[in-house]
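Journal club prep — side note

Before the paper discussion, L.F. wants everyone to see what a predicted structure for a comparable chain looks like in token form. Sequence:
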Amino acid sequence: MQFASGQSIYLQISDYISEKILRGDWVEGDRIPSIRETAVSVEVNPNTVTRAYAVLQDEGILQNQRGVGYFVAAGGREAAAALKRREFEEDELPRVFRTMRLLGMSLAELEHLYERYVTEEESERHD
């Protein structure tokens, strides 16, 4: 995992886990890697992973079964989608809209670019 500057590492780890749940890599009831396993795989301090898991637990995405591990919570996918949507609407969309306005770009142009992106992504998935 490559970390980007500008965002806390624990938040990037929680994003990574949320994305795996949203993609269906981990489904409701699945046990996810332990804090220690995740810390080793992404090469960070276990305290950083603990913080990421706590955020996801607070959001209802993960649940901890003491002595057993962390699992995708019931409704975890929906909670992950709600969290990502909220973050997108609050953080990313304002930047996109500001840039569009500066460039004089219309919603129709954005829609065209989005449709092209989806088409290309689907063709890559089938290759």
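L.F.'s comment for the group: The chain has a mean pLDDT of 94. Keep this in mind when we get to the figures.
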